[in-house]
Amino acid sequence: MTRTKISALLVGASLAVLSTGASALTIGFSQIGSESGWRTSETESIKAEAKKRGIDLKFSDAQQKQENQIKALRSFIAQGVDGILLAPVVETGWDQVLKEAKDAKIPVVLVDRGVKVADESLYLTKVASDFVEEGRLAAAWLATRTSGKCRYVELQGTVGSSAAIDRKKGFEDVVKLFPRMEQARSQSGDFTRSGGKQVMESFLKAEDGGKALCAVYAHNDDMALGAIQAIKEAGLKPGKDLSIISIDAVPDIFKAMADGDTNATIELNPHLGGPAFDAIDAAKAGKPVAKWIKAQGPLYLPDTAADEYKRRSAQ
Ligand code: GZL
């Protein structure tokens, strides 16, 4: 290639960066997998945001395995990326690889879940909602709907994930204030529809076909959608014989709500790329970054479900 062509290319590249004002950064993104509708939306949103900013995003899908995430982080470090986004599948086991990133001076931003580490300086910030608050809100809604008397079952998210641990904690913080609220059974459906259906089937079998059950608390909408199928196949009416509340506010839960099959969902924002990339930019500019960038969502009820479904499925 002639010298003129190379210099033209270099001018072109720098003009592209200047014109969009985007940072020509290379960012590694270790994503958990595609276990739920919400996870897929998060992936699509972060990829779109990276494209809009002219960021070269190296994407890795861990298929729900922590060892794959650790491998991906080590690969990003070896490539010398400018920053890393990590959606940690579970809370623990990250100290060593985060220390390697810190030693390589690569900022790590946690998205949508948290980690338990000995030294909080091992990551730049966490962009996530407050799962304990979500659990408290869900329990307050159920206690109000049932006048504080309900024998419920719980579909937990992925074992060891901060989302499952804290959504469980928050719910139980409030339930213990109501002596006639009783947890009949609680088990992980791993945040998937199939997991939610299988576990709900086992709950119904163990609970005399579900006749004595009052409600289902699902840590995400996908497990609630699976449970709805199981409840129908057992001859009961979901949303009526058993009240149901879940979290994420994916489009399909609004369809189910409009059909009368579920009763409430709490919104979880999937658009975490903007705040995550801004945090990396701020760190590189030597600006302070909060340790937790929180995004909290509202609770939705059947009265707006049809409109919400139309609006969200058109997006
Ligand atoms: C919560 C996120 C959870 C979602 C699920 O921030 O980690 O993981 O609620 C997803 O849909 O599987």
Which terms would index this structure?
Sugar ABC transporter substrate-binding protein, six-stranded parallel β-sheet, 11 helices, Rossmann fold, carbohydrate binding, 315 residues, Peripla_BP_I, alpha/beta, 45% helix, binds beta-D-galactofuranose, signal, 2 domains
Uncertain stretches:
16-22
**CATH domain topology of the largest domain:** Rossmann fold
Query: From N to C, what is the helix and strand string?
Result: HEHEHEHEEHEHEHEHEHEHEEH
CATH architecture of the largest domain: 3-Layer(aba) Sandwich
Question: Strand order of the main beta sheet, please?
Answer: 2-1-3-4-5-11
State the helix count: 11
Describe the overall structure.
The chain is built from eleven helices and twelve strands. The protein is of the alpha/beta class and 315 residues long. The chain has two domains: 24-129 and 270-284, Response regulator (Rossmann fold), CATH 3.40.50; 131-268 and 301-313, Response regulator (Rossmann fold, 3-Layer(aba) Sandwich). The N and C termini lie far apart (44 Å). The protein binds beta-D-galactofuranose.
